[in-house]
Amino acid sequence: DETQGxxxxxxxxxxxxxxxxxxxxxxGTNVEYWNDVLKHSLKDELxxxxxxxxxxxxxxxxxxxxxxxxxxxxxxxLEIYYLEKLRCLAIGLxxxxxxxxxxxxxxxxxxxxxxxxxxxxxxxxxxTMKTWDSVDHFIDFLQPVVHDGRGxxxxxxxEDDSHPNDLGHRSMYQCLDIDSILADxxxxx
Length: 189
Prior knowledge:
By secondary structure, the chain is mainly α. It is built from seven helices and five strands; from the N terminus they run H-H-H-E-H-E-H-E-E-E-H-H. The longest helix has 25 residues, at 72-96.
């Protein structure tokens, strides 16, 4: 149930702390979609971006096609493309945000269609993302509470291969360090 997703749980905590919350997420989208939004329809798709105190972006490598990659070359090409486009997106978001706002990016998360080779891509993506200085905080969705060590959802925590159920979303929510996500914004409230 989408109303019980990790983002919804975050919205409840944000409201408790005095923040308003707007979810502009679009299911099934990828880095190309959001880069296009940033370039062509920012005011229509993300009208609250320039005034937001915290902006959170979380995209799935499965939406980029990672589960369908079979060779090391395919995985490497997808990894490079994803990181390049996600970094462009992070830089573009940062430029569109007010200077005092915090940019938070969710890291890769499980998928039951991933192999151990796919998990290695997730880990490399995570390690690379954490080096970006345009981002204030990263959410580690590869913590043991979320996946089984093989890049899959824990048993009973998934709706389908790509999506968590309520239990999976609660597990993802446990990965959030709310104080770090809202850090500088907390003192302004």
